[in-house]
Specification:
Blueprint (H helix, E strand, L loop, with lengths): L8 H57 L10 E5 L5 E12 L8 E16 L2 E17 L1
Antiparallel strand pairs: 1-2, 2-3, 3-4
């Protein structure tokens, strides 16, 4: 008959292994949560970028479809885009004759516009993108 006294070493080793596995599981859960927040922020920033681009495109389409190149579209404020939480506003920084002007029968007008896209949820805007675009339009008179 074996009469060795048991000292509980196996119990101690198994508890240490269980503690290590628990710490690994907690770390993995925290990393997963962090990755989810990072991807959510990236998605919101991309949506704000697209909203700002929509503002620039809308303004440019209105300007270049006008018959007269001196007719600049009005600035827009808080225009909803697609989903109800996406919006943009376009501000005209400069719109008028270019420096140096046109020659003879050619009129030359320049513009500099800024579009701000925002993603807002529950009253707070989490992501904002600002884009600025400039250009010119020539027209025979």
């Amino acid at each position: 008959m074996n009469t060795h006294k048991q000292r509980g070493v196996v119990l101690l080793v198994s508890l240490l292994l269980l503690l290590m596995l628990t710490l690994i599981a907690i770390t993995a859960a925290n990393q997963s949560s962090l990755q989810l927040r990072i991807s959510s922020n990236s998605e919101q920033q991309n949506a704000a970028f697209q909203a700002a681009e929509s503002g620039l495109q809308q303004w440019a389409n209105a300007y270049f479809s006008a018959a007269n190149n001196a007719t600049f579209p009005a600035a827009s404020t808080a225009v909803q885009v697609g989903a109800s939480n996406e919006r943009f506003s376009v501000a005209t920084i400069y719109a008028g004759p270019c420096a140096g002007g046109g020659l003879g029968r050619v009129s030359l007008n320049c513009f500099d516009i800024q579009s701000t896209g925002e993603i807002c949820e529950s009253g707070s805007c989490n992501a904002t993108a600002v884009h600025r675009q400039g250009g010119q339009r020539r027209q025979l008179q």
